[in-house]
Design goal:
By secondary structure, this protein is an alpha+beta fold. Helices cover 42% and strands 22% of the residues.
């Protein structure tokens, strides 16, 4: 937990940048307002400030705003999972062609799962989860999967952090016995599921991606609940997803680069190191 109250103006500015990115780097005040809930006059002031700082530009022809190349500098230091993505991308492309339904590749960050690759596009199935989106750990298949297969110390730290979270989706962490029972079941089964707990209209399964005995990421497939039951989803797609994970793990094992795996306490453990 932070020792200081958050700087609201900064948080809102970052929310606006994230909204513009989600909108494809080009959006109007109304669209940003709808996405963030920030009042329109405040959105305008934030955009003007971001223009002054060089991160946003005004697109006069459409009365909208766009991100500038300066935003790319914000990600220069975040290369932890670059090699994972390079190894996984071609395998995931083939996977998505076989699945038909959307899938995400996610990693754990601080207190949530972060989508680092996804097959869904803006408007697809009305679920606009994009690269960079943060989703809860306890209510999603990708989050439960990571937590179940994390080492015991990491799992304990994460559960302790989530237990004091005010996010209703983290509520299960406040009952450790129930949480650990669920995680034990996932480890025994080898994969995690979610059945309309996070998104009421979807079901999902997720598998862990390991390297050197550590869970590095998780990958899922989700379907519309009306289209398929959970048992059918497991029977039809778990073998395909499991096969893709095996391919990714083999690709990572043969890698000749390095990747640092962040740990729950903010430290780092070495993953790929050849």
């Amino acid at each position: 937990m932070s020792s200081y109250a958050p700087v609201t103006a900064l948080v809102r500015g970052l929310d606006v940048l994230h909204a513009l990115n989600t909108l494809g780097g080009d959006g109007g005040v109304g669209a940003i307002h709808e996405m963030t809930g920030i009042p329109k006059p405040t959105v305008v002031r934030i955009l003007e400030t971001l223009i002054y700082a060089g991160f946003v530009s005004r697109i006069s022809a459409t009365k909208s705003y766009g991100l500038t190349a300066k935003c790319m500098a914000l990600s220069n230091g975040f290369d932890t999972y670059d090699y994972l993505l390079r190894q996984a991308a071609p395998i995931l492309d083939v996977l998505r062609g076989r699945l038909v339904w959307p899938s995400d590749l996610a990693v754990f960050d601080s207190n949530a799962m972060v989508i680092i690759e996804t097959s869904r596009r803006i408007g697809t199935l009305s679920f606009n989860r994009t690269v960079g989106s943060r989703v809860p750990v306890m209510a999603t298949a990708i989050g439960r999967c990571f937590l179940a297969f994390a080492d015991s110390d990491t799992r304990r730290r994460i559960l302790a952090d989530l237990a004091v979270s005010d996010n209703p989706y983290d509520a299960l962490a406040r009952t450790p016995d129930q949480a650990n029972k669920l995680l034990d079941t996932i480890r025994e089964r080898g994969f995690a599921t979610s059945d309309q707990e996070y998104m009421s209209s979807t079901r999902a399964i997720a598998f862990p991606i390991f390297f050197n005995g550590q869970v590095l990421a998780t990958v899922n497939v989700f379907v519309i609940a009306d289209a398929m039951g959970l048992d059918q989803l497991i029977d039809r797609y778990s073998p395909i997803l499991r096969g893709a994970v095996d391919e990714i793990e083999n690709a990572l094992a043969g890698a000749k680069s390095g990747i640092t795996v962040p740990t729950a306490d903010g430290g780092a453990a070495m993953g790929i190191s050849h």
